[in-house]
Write a structure and sequence with these properties.
By secondary structure, this protein is an alpha/beta fold. The chain has six helices and five strands. Helix 4 packs across helix 6.
Length: 200
């Protein structure tokens, strides 16, 4: 029987995307975060699992570049935003990940992302500010779909890689953390499964 704990040295792939107020994880606000846990079916193929997301209150003194809000379309004052502080937001994200790590017999999560070190840096910086001791993610290793997409399709831009993979893409929903995470999860699983088929 195929089990995901046996495939990545005990690491559980979890796709993450963040939307932020800038590029510096020490000074710029984390505004949205979403995650999709990757599962393995009985044939050894990867499939996207459940999604979880949270809107995040900027930490005290956080920088927010107006240009970043233009790109993401985030309205910090939207009445339906219902943002959580960093501790609560990361708790919402980390709790189901920890549960899935235990259920699968994995040792910890490994972040999968498009430009993954960017997302990983913001996750770790926010966890440190929030005083979270049980961060499920590996401190520095990650899987980057930029590199995988370049290898598989000759593309590094997420939308172009998605198109090459013949996955449905809605540009109007892009730059929502949840949408981008779900699409990146589909892309990661698709590329892995292509390799899996060729390797058998």
């Amino acid at each position: 029987m195929h089990q995901i704990k046996d495939r990545f040295r005990g690491f559980l792939p979890v796709v993450v995307d963040v939307e932020t107020g800038g590029f510096n994880n020490q000074t710029d606000a984390l505004l949205e975060i979403a995650a999709v846990v990757v599962d393995m079916d009985e044939t050894g193929l990867l499939v996207p699992g459940d999604s979880v997301n949270a809107y995040v209150e900027p930490f005290e003194g956080a920088n927010i570049d107006p240009k970043a809000l233009e790109v993401t379309g985030i309205d910090l004052n939207h009445p339906l935003r219902q943002a959580l502080n960093e501790n609560a937001a990361l708790g919402r994200i980390f709790t189901p990940i920890r549960k899935r790590i235990k259920e699968t017999g994995c040792t910890r999560a490994i972040l999968v992302g498009h430009n993954a070190h960017f997302d990983l840096g913001f996750v770790h910086a926010a966890a440190e500010r929030a005083g979270i001791k049980r961060n499920p993610f590996h401190p520095f290793s990650c899987f980057d779909t930029v590199s995988l997409s370049a290898l598989a399709f000759g593309q590094t831009v997420l939308a172009r890689a998605i198109k090459e993979a013949q996955i449905e893409w809605d540009g109007e929903q892009a730059h929502s953390a949840l949408y981008d995470t779900e699409k990146t999860a589909e892309l990661f699983c698709h590329i892995y499964n292509l390799w899996h088929h060729k390797g058998t």
